[in-house]
Design goal:
An 8-stranded parallel beta barrel has the order 3-4-5-10-11-12-13-14, surrounded by 5 helices. It contains 11 helices and 14 strands. It has helices at 37-45, 75-90, 108-111, 145-164, 179-184, 199-217, 240-254, 272-281, 297-305, 316-320, 324-329, and strands spanning 8-10, 13-15, 19-21, 51-53, 95-99, 117-118, 127-130, 133-136, 141-142, 169-174, 222-226, 261-265, 284-288, 311-314. The chain is globular and about 60 Å long. The longest helix has 20 residues, at 145-164. The protein has a single domain (8-341), classed as TIM Barrel (Alpha-Beta Barrel), CATH 3.20.20. Helices cover 33% and strands 15% of the residues. The chain is an alpha/beta fold. Strand 12, helix 8 (272-281) and strand 13 (284-288) form a beta-alpha-beta unit. The protein binds flavin mononucleotide. Residues 22-25, 55-56, 98, 173, 175-176, 225, 265, 288, 290-291, 294-295, 314-316, 342 line the site of flavin mononucleotide. InterPro entries: Aldolase_TIM, OxRdtase_FMN_N, Oye-like. Pfam families: Oxidored_FMN. This is Alkene reductase.
Length: 359
């Protein structure tokens, strides 16, 4: 039986255990998007866990999705991340960068453009937190074929910069209603060209992005995150047959590459859908059951020990407990989670959670 604290080698990426720090947006960067000394400290503190996945990072200004989001679009941002990667490596752990295109989920005060870009010119019908408080998200521009080519190229350049910064790998964000999910989900993709309509067509952009990045950095350093039927931020996937066909098309379209891992966010770990995705992928699968309740030790153990997945992504408990793996392994009490400081600027709630024994 595989245990939660067993190490693993996934492609070129090494995990000290099966507890993976989930990608977590923390909004602590300045407008320049350069990781700061605070970012170095934050990730270094959490290097005790099996693997770190960074917060979703933008690779071009237009795809910024949050205020305070760090980037991997410039040499200066790359240099900031180099220090983060180095600090994590000095603790004996590895770190993967999640790179993302927010698509339509942005505001002029976040990305500096009047509109975001998406599969179709359909507003998500949600508000986002901008410079002046919550604002309605504008209708995006539908990407044309040159725009799609640019997105694939820029995604790939961002991945290259991440590896050049010393990251051990790159995770493509295909989840949670951001650009690639906006192409996958029928509610947000009304295109009539080869990127819309059938499951195969809606999966095409994600496949092109993955294939292009694998070609650039090597598939053994590449992961993909998906969240089928998450039904969040206006990306609705309500027909399970269509969902299976769409994600099967995506996984079939990258099967020959053998990417390092697939990270799935789905609420029910024991569902047929999770089993279907795992079988369709065939490689190392990381699971997270989403925002309903925080991932706790019992659930994490159940997922790995009962072979529902190969690893578990843990979010909020690792925000509050930098040394979560150590605490879980030794049955130690946990710090309470302060959700009020998830996205606030400054060190409080970011780098001042105590380690075990220092409370
Ligand atoms: C503050 C916060 C920020 C998040 N940012 C991201 C992100 O940048 N990329 C991503 O794929 N998921 C993001 N998520 C989702 C988490 O990776 C994870 O799926 C979620 O927290 C549920 O896991 P948990 O119950 O262990 O916290 C975020 C969640 C939270 C709470």
């Amino acid at each position: 039986m595989t245990g939660l604290f067993d190490s693993a080698q996934v492609g070129a990426i090494h995990l000290n255990n099966r507890i993976i720090m989930a990608p977590l947006t923390r909004s602590r960067a300045a407008q320049d998007g350069i990781p700061t000394d605070m970012h170095i400290e934050y990730y270094k503190q959490r290097a005790d866990n099996g693997l770190i996945v960074t917060e979703g990072t933008f690779f071009e200004d237009i795809n910024r999705a949050f205020l305070g989001q760090p980037g991997i679009a410039t040499a200066e941002q790359q240099e900031g991340w180099r220090k983060v990667a180095q600090a994590v490596h000095e603790q004996g752990s590895e770190i993967v960068m999640q790179i993302m295109h927010g698509g339509r989920l942005t505001l002029p005060s976040i990305n500096g453009f009047d509109q975001g870009e998406s599969s179709s010119a359909i507003a998500p019908g949600v508000t986002l937190h901008g410079a002046e408080g919550r604002e309605e998200v504008p209708t995006p521009v539908a990407l044309d074929s040159e725009g799609i080519e640019r997105v694939v190229r820029k995604f790939t350049e961002g991945a290259r910069r991440a590896i050049d910064a010393g990251m051990d790998g790159v995770e493509v964000h295909g989840a949670n209603g951001y650009l690639l999910h906006q192409f996958l989900a029928p509610s947000s993709n009304h295109r009539t060209d080869e990127y819309g309509g059938s499951p195969e067509n809606r999966a095409r952009l994600a496949i092109e992005v993955i294939r292009s990045i694998a070609d650039e950095i090597g598939a053994d350093r590449l992961g993909l995150r998906i969240s089928p039927m998450h039904n969040i931020q206006g990306c609705m996937e309500e027909d399970e047959n269509d969902v299976r066909a769409t994600y099967k098309a995506l996984l079939d379209g990258i099967a020959d590459l053998n990417i390092a891992y697939l990270s799935v966010l789905y609420q029910d770990a024991e569902s047929d859908l999770v089993a279907f995705l795992r079988e369709s992928f065939g490689g190392f699968m990381i699971l997270n059951t989403g925002f309903g309740t925080e991932t706790e030790l019992d659930e994490a153990r159940h997922i790995v020990e009962d072979d529902l997945a190969d690893g578990v992504a843990v979010g909020r408990e690792i925000i509050a407990n930098p040394d979560l793996s150590y605490r879980w392994k030794n049955d130690l009490p946990l710090n309470p989670i302060d959700s009020d400081t998830f996205y606030t600027p400054g060190p409080h709630g970011y780098i001042d959670y105590p380690m075990a024994g220092q409370e």
